[in-house]
Amino acid sequence: MIALASNADLAAAAAEAAETACGYVAFRTRLRGNLQLATEHEQVLQSLHAYRTALERRRDHYATAWRWSLWPAIPAVVVILGGTLLFDERPHKWLRLSLATLVCAMAFLFAAWFSLRKSAGFQKELDALKTLDDEAP
After folding, report:
1. Least buried of 16, 97, 101, 119, by fewest C-beta within 10 Å?
2. Residue 110: in which H helix or E strand, if any?
3. What is the dihedral of CA 118, 119, 120, 123, to 10 degrees?
């Protein structure tokens, strides 16, 4: 027959099993916490990379947008100015033509300035992110 252990032996074995279980749970919890922190860190890095990529795309878009966005307006300006030059019979035609040319040139310059200013703003944001990268260990 198998000898049964005493109550004291069973209590000691149960305490050992409980200590081992608590130690295992603590170990796994700490390991999971470290893994989760690493995952969160990687997620932050991925988010920063996606944000940086989006900023670069927007910067490049605004840096070149003024060039290609003005081309569709040029035929309209030529037609308006050419029509004024050829078919306007009112007095002071040259004054009106000069004023219209000045307004069109100012609109083109404003569009270029606005696009380049937006591009420079995105570049400043990218530079700020770069300083974050330089400061990180």
Report:
1. 16
2. helix 93-135
3. 130
